[in-house]
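User: Structure tokens for both sequences below?

Assistant:
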Amino acid sequence: MSGGLLDKVRRGAGRLSRPSVMSARSEAGVLSICFDDFPKSAWAEGGRILRQHGARATYFLCGGLCGREFVGQAMFEERDVEAILEEGHELGCHTFDHKSALRQSSRDLLLSFERNARFVSERFGDVRMVSFAYPYGDAPPGAKRAASRTFACARGVDAGLNRGRIDLAQLKAVALETGQGGAGHVLPHIAAAARERAWLIVFTHDVSDKPSRFGCTPVELATVIESAESAGLEILTVKGGLAKRAFRGT
């Protein structure tokens, strides 16, 4: 079986594997905003927009990217992490080295979790990351089991709302990316989350007037926040959204 086909099969198996399926009581709709990889602009520009609206977000960090350039973007520095923690945002795990779970064993993935946790604790004190996002959204069964043992929840990139019976090891999320249609792609999901009292998770990367295809503009980020506020969604971190949904075992 070719590598591409094998990867496709493993991704599909991951979607069928549900080590942490839970039911969520219907409450008011929630929006959680995520920044993956943590480009520096996600704080410089994204943080400014969040501050204007009094909103909190989740920044998914790879310790190995600190102070580096990654896919053409300047990444976060230690002082950026200090600032987001001071302002009450959540720090989430994105592995230490941003390797796909399709390219490493479950043991290697667990070691990457530990290395990332050590990177954070050695620099920022008693900060426990309880939310995880899979690099590239790749979540084969072994990775989901590893994530379930380590974190309260894990987020993928499959579009949709989190409602009813959900997989805490692969939460659904909607891309706020220029390559996916930007804010226009997200707005219908906001309306649906309000109507169905569901949990909507939105993810992006860099934030600038000329974003990469994986990022968004400040105007688009502000539009999503303002639309969520108008729709009556509560804006919470992923950790906060998880607590708000009042999950129970099934």
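Moving on to the next sequence.
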Amino acid sequence: MNYKSLIILISFMLLMPFRAGAQEIITKGESLNLERCVEIALKMHPNIIAASSTVNATESRIGQAESNYYPQVNWSSSYSRNKPASSSSGSSSGTSSGALGRTNGSFDQYSAGFNVSQTIYDFGKTPTQVKIQKYNFDSSRSDLQTTTDQVINNVKQKYYGVLQAKRNRDVSTESVKQFEQHLEQAKGFFTVGTKPKFDVTKAEVDLGNARLNLIRAENTLRIGTANLNNAMGVPDAPEYMLEDNLLFRKYDMTFEDALSKASQNRPDLQSIVAKKQAAEQAIELARKGYYPALTGNAGYNWTGDKFPLEHGWNVGATFSFPLFSGYLTKYQVEEAKANLNVLTANEESVKQTLFLDVQQAYLNLRDAEERVPVAELMVKQAEENFELASGRYTAGVGNPIEVTDAEVSLITAKTSYIQALYDYKVAQASLEKAMGTDVQSRQ
């Protein structure tokens, strides 16, 4: 998903209440596919809401930095009641004219006025601050995309996890039915005296184990569904159904192409690059502490102790030059350089992590790709073996141990096949996340 479409979607989502109820997002009994689950996560997951709000905050900082381009206008007004201290050496009557007559009396004081100041030239400090905030904004947008990729990848893994658990549950259900059928056969043979009591007891034990496995499979499915709900940001979601797309479709991609796409698209790499650019500008901003600033100002005010108030105005300019600040600017420049070195090292770390992510996901994908056809063949062979063992027992020439071993082998083969399909889908999703590509464009 590109940044533009992501911002449009999240902006629409932010117009809604912060958290709609799960019943309003998912209808009970609704059939969800992977795209629908991802859509719900983009609307509801708190990590995406937090990351998008961070983008809005950093965008506001650009406006804050640009505010220094405009004049600053302030209005102030005050009132005070004053009573000067009496003079101990003054006249005892304290009633002489003029100011002496007011010495022991109280009076009001009023003042009001406005002041306008405008930075005329600050040797590029304001433009540099604006550049820094724009780079930080770019970094936060990339961080939003990183968070989005993580949320979507988690949804995909949990989605496939539920499908895996559901298929394993179905295998366990089928196994219970087969062992129930085998128990009925054993009882029938024992009744007519062709098989010993051991066959019946063995079938009962096998059926009990199969039922225990079914209970565990049901619980695993419930846990998987809870994990998917949490990944979508709707832990209290009503019951729904999932479309099963746990199928093998070969994903054609060379390692070199995957690595190239990751280098171009990974949002965490783009984020660290933007932070480096901001750090480079921060060095320039710190160096500008050595330069002067020219500011213009003007004001108009009213003041007096009675109305109408006297009024006046002022206009002028201030030129300030930092002669000595206790080496403050020097240390600020050194700090900015050190921060840039940190980000440079972090960029190299991200590149190494990027390479490892792509390599691991690619190797896991190829491993699962090789295992899927082998596991599929094993299922066919195990089914044939089970049919032979069951047929031999039905014909009265087999024994229950053969049937049990064949059934266990069949269960193992089916479970391995389901695991291989799950591993392939998860590896594909991990590779797409590692490349920073649109994870919804390939199913």
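User: Anything stand out in the second?

Assistant: The CA atoms of residues 32 and 242 lie 5 Å apart.
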